[in-house]
Amino acid sequence: MTDNDKIRNERREFLKTSALVAGGVMMSGYSWAGMPSSSNDDTIKIALIGCGDRGTGAAFQALSTKFNLKLVAMADAFQDRLDNSYKAISTKFGAKVDVPKERQFVGLDGYKQAIALADVVLLVTPPGFRPIHFEEAIKQGKHVFMEKPVAVDSPGIRKVLAAAELAKQKKLNVVVGLQRRYQTNYREVLKRIEDGKIGDIVSGQVYWNSGGVWVKPRTASQTEMEYQMRNWYYFNWLCGDHIVEQHVHNIDIANWVKNAYPVSIQGTGSRAWRTGKNYGEIYDNHAVELTYADGSVIYSQCRHFEGTNNRVDESFQGTKGKVYLSANNSGILWDHKGKEIYNHDRKGNANPYQTEHDELFAAITNNEYKFWDAERAAKSCFTAIVGRYATYSGEVIKWDDALKAENSLFPEQLSWDAKPKSLPDANGLYTIAMPGKTKVLGQS
């Protein structure tokens, strides 16, 4: 046996071993029928769960790595999204795509069959589905790339944390799409912060202020469930509000810089610009204070206002200096006298969206267990969720109290004719949280 043969055998063993651990795929009840044979090659098979724009982009990035990958299964709630995604991916990648009709799963439970057919799954549905999809992938023993946020409420976070622990036990690599963690300027600046270049972090400010996002008009034939799923950004059981879905990127940097998570959060928010019935139930602005155990406070602001100043960045102040960061590859540290300590060179910096996949599939190809993003991602997502609890209620929300809450936003039943928990009134308007009146931790 040649060295290459040994490597291929080791890789196949690595990919399948965790699937057999603790009641993996062989005990899951799913058949391997229709799955491309891997007995004579070392191809890593991937399944795409969620075929919208971000899901299609994730598949592009996975298949753009230098490794031997093949897309073998796809799943989405909607036929048109799957069809459009399949066309785009197959046009771009040709032989790397082998997803005949029998491995294209449409509906609300097709993810189970698609997961069973792969070594690695890309979880890129609306965030409300992430906990159940991630739990299933780990139970079946699969390596995972999943987009942020990983949940939208306390019960969902607990489910993700439990699955994350199981993933560690099975040595399953999990990468989460908080891509600043994979961006060169952030990595280089954080090294210097961790080395004490600006001392202990005592305060900070993080922002995602921008315009709004898409709206998809209601059609006469849609059930309420389909309407909300088509407009998932505007409903908390699917999105978590934009403080969770989008601003989690900046909040995650706050936690990374602090190397900690807040013990309590308070703040305010409202619907000031985005007020019509097309915008579901979410706010368009949030401003919260993240208080950490050492007493330091980081200010967090996000808004969706058209025609106003945009700002997406992070600043922190330490006992010896300060730092500025942004996703455009900026990263500068100064001391308290204004002397520049470090200024990141943007030249040649890799695309962090691509780096996430490059590093994940390198680890899998090399039979390495290197990535356990799920736990820290869940805690940063939970920070954003607690922020929403604070703005909706007007209360100071303690981390430990919120983590225990039995306040699931997920529908009691999941089918096209089932009713979500938030429904429009006779005028098509949804109930909007009212600080001082809304109870966020006790709803069922």
Features:
single chain; 444 residues; alpha/beta; 9-stranded mixed β-sheet; 6-stranded parallel β-sheet
Overall description:
- With 444 residues, this protein is of the alpha/beta class.
- The chain is 33% helix and 19% strand.
- It contains 13 helices and 15 strands.
- The protein has helices at residues 3-17, 53-63, 79-93, 110-116, 130-139, 154-170, 184-194, 224-230, 242-245, 248-258, 352-365, 373-393, 399-403, and strands at 44-49, 69-76, 104-106, 120-123, 143-146, 174-176, 201-210, 264-270, 285-291, 297-304, 311-318, 321-325, 331-335, 340-343, 397-398.
- The strands form 2 sheets. It has a 9-stranded mixed β-sheet.
- β1, α2 and β2 form a beta-alpha-beta unit.
- The longest helix has 21 residues, at 373-393.
- The model is unreliable at 19-39 (pLDDT under 50).
Which helices and strands occur, and which strands form pairs?
Elements: H1 3-17, E1 44-49, H2 53-63, E2 69-76, H3 79-93, E3 104-106, H4 110-116, E4 120-123, H5 130-139, E5 143-146, H6 154-170, E6 174-176, H7 184-194, E7 201-210, H8 224-230, H9 242-245, H10 248-258, E8 264-270, E9 285-291, E10 297-304, E11 311-318, E12 321-325, E13 331-335, E14 340-343, H11 352-365, H12 373-393, E15 397-398, H13 399-403
Parallel strand pairs: 1-2, 1-4, 2-3, 4-5, 5-6, 7-10
Antiparallel strand pairs: 7-11, 8-9, 8-15, 9-10, 11-12, 12-13, 13-14
Helix pairs in contact: 2-3, 5-6, 6-12, 10-12
